[in-house]
Structures are given as C-alpha cells and as structure tokens.
Design a protein that fits this description.
By secondary structure, this protein is of the alpha+beta class. The chain is built from one helix and four strands; from the N terminus they run αββββ.
Length: 77
C-alpha cells in the first residue's frame, strides 16, 4: 500500500512539474513575440541595439570609402 501511495505521489509531482514548465515556456514565448527581433548596429563605439524607429546603414569615411562600421539613422520627430 505504501508503494502505491508513493507511486501516485511521484506521478502527481511529475505532472505538476510538467505543467509549471509548460506555463513558463508559454510566458517566455509570449514575451519574445511581443518584443520582436531587435536590430544591432556595430559602430566605432561598439555593437549596440538600435532604438525603435531607427535603422542601420553603411558608414563611409570622409573620402567615400566604406568604413566597415554602421551608422544609425533615425527619423525626425
């Protein structure tokens, strides 16, 4: 009888863990969907996330040669 009670308790515990894990996965997935994919620009100051409403474009030196870095361009407000 004790073995049966122990088996039932183990199954109930495992089911509770699975439900908690599924709820955690759902909330994490929901947050990812709401936030969307964030763009990153690598400037001379390092790689940083780009604010909303801005986009990266290729940077050039003063004589027109590509610098290899991004320039962040934002719309006027």
């Amino acid at each position: 009888m004790k073995k049966l009670a122990l088996a039932v308790a183990a199954i109930a515990f495992a089911a509770a863990l699975i439900q908690a894990d599924a709820a955690t996965d759902l909330s994490a997935k929901k947050k990812r969907v709401e936030r969307g994919e964030q763009k990153i620009a690598c400037t001379p100051a390092g790689c940083h996330p780009i604010p909303a409403g801005c986009y990266p474009t290729m940077g050039y030196t003063w004589d027109g040669v590509p610098s290899g870095f991004d320039v962040v361009v934002c719309r006027r407000r």
